[in-house]
Amino acid sequence: MPWPIYSERFLHHQAAGEWTYVVPDGRRAIVTNVDAVSTVGSSTWYSLRIGDIYLTLSLFPVANDPHQLVLRQVAYQGEEIALLIEQTGLNVSVSGYLMDDTSGATGPPGDSSWRPLEEAGQLPAPRG
Q1: pTM flag (> 0.85)
Q2: Which residues on neighbouring strands pair with residue 90, listed in sequence order?
Q3: Is residue 72 part of a domain?
Q4: 53 falls within a domain
Q5: pLDDT in tens, 58-106
Q6: How far is Cα 58 from Cα 60, in angstroms, rounded to an integer?
């Protein structure tokens, strides 16, 4: 039987471009860490977003400049976690937790895509 929650590396890249991870149906992702180091000889940057909301734009003025961002951001089923790397040689890893989510929520409360619990069905009983 699979665990209901486990550690996950969502994105792990060093090439220029936009890289995405879409949270699978029936799951919820919690992004907790972004680790990066630049091997580029000039200044560079990366950005991270969930859906249309940017969480960070991190600048690296020199090579071999390490960066660690600790956060706790939720992405619901169907939402996209996106990493944009400006130049090849900027190594970025995005990790956190992926958990089962049987609530059917597709966004936070108040979001137009969010469904109230009455519509989504009852949550499972807590494990104990």
Answers
A1: no
A2: 38
A3: yes
A4: yes
A5: 999 888 888 999 999 999 999 999 999 999 999 999 999 999 988 877 7
A6: 7
